[in-house]
Design brief:
18% strand; endopeptidase fold (from Nostoc punctiforme); 278 residues; single chain; LysM peptidoglycan-binding domain-containing protein; Membrane-bound Lytic Murein Transglycosylase D, Chain A; alpha+beta; 3 domains; 10 helices; LysM
Length: 278
């Protein structure tokens, strides 16, 4: 149905790429990169960049780095970046997090692969696809999810007349480049590049010449979000030994992102005696 609607729009001379399409393209690329390492053994503390073995976050950090996305090294750190996303709205490439010890501390991360599956490096089986919400294990330990892939603005319009009159440009694909990275460089979209070059997938080859600007869309700025209302009084909490930013957020029913923002924290590390604004 989506393909039929897109075909009708293109026939009318107007292309309306969406943020969901951009996310899906990069999400597929990330999963495709990760499954190159299926079966690699699990080793706790494995260095990022070592592809002979992985732990859960050396795997996620390395895979996302191949697509220009930098992540913190720890699962707690990764759970505090990006945008929170509900289980019902998960898309390929979202990060999913778990508390395997039931102690209120996130200690495992994986990459959502669609259809209820995740791609992760785990102590049993190494790098593998598994049921992200299995009632026998992962489902009971699931905590939250984060989207670190930036979506494109929701509305972008290009007329057919401006497309044909614009001067074309080409880009020669370099080693390690992705269609998403090239689209960001030329301020266009993955969907637009696929249409310009007649691509049916996001796969590229080194040395390939891509048309990049003949129909570059003019993006409308997203509406500004209203600033949150200021509260009259600021509550604080004194950190106790054994506390984590995650456990404090659960206790006071706020997000880790909120605590990091109001306290101007650059990481999720805290210490006993520290005053935390709530």
């Amino acid at each position: 149905m989506k393909k039929k609607v897109m075909s009708l729009i293109i026939a009318a001379g107007v292309l309306v790429p969406s943020g969901d399409l951009v996310h899906a393209s990069l999400g597929d690329d990330i999963i495709n990169t990760g499954d190159n390492y299926l079966g690699k053994p699990y080793r706790y503390g494995s260095a990022v960049g070592n592809t002979s073995s992985f732990d859960c976050t050396s795997f996620t950090t390395y895979v996302f780095s191949r697509h220009g996305i930098t992540l913190p090294r720890t699962s707690i750190g990764q759970a505090s970046v990006g945008t929170p996303v509900s289980k019902a709205n998960l898309q390929k490439g979202d990060l999913v997090f778990y508390d395997t010890n039931f102690d209120g501390v996130i200690n495992h991360a994986g990459i959502y692969a669609g259809n209820g599956k995740m791609l992760n490096a785990q102590s049993t089986g190494g790098v593998k696809f598994t049921d992200a919400f299995s009632p026998y294990y992962w489902g009971a330990r699931y905590v939250t999810a984060r989207r670190v892939i930036k979506e494109a603005p929701k509305t972008a319009v290009v007329s057919s007349s401006s497309a044909t009159s614009a001067k074309g440009q080409t880009h020669k694909v370099q080693k390690g480049e992705t269609l998403y990275g090239i689209s960001k460089k030329y301020k266009t979209t993955v969907a637009n590049l696929q249409k310009l070059n007649g691509l049916k997938s996001t796969s590229l080859r080194v040395g390939q010449a891509l048309k990049v600007s003949a129909t570059a869309p003019v993006l409308k700025p997203a509406p500004k979000k209203a600033a949150p209302a200021k509260t009259a009084a600021v509550k604080t909490y004194t950190v106790k030994r054994g506390d984590s930013l995650w456990s404090i957020s659960k206790r006071y029913k706020v997000s880790v992102d909120h605590l990091m923002k109001v306290n101007k924290l650059k990481s999720s590390s805290i210490y006993a005696g520290q005053k935390i604004k709530l």
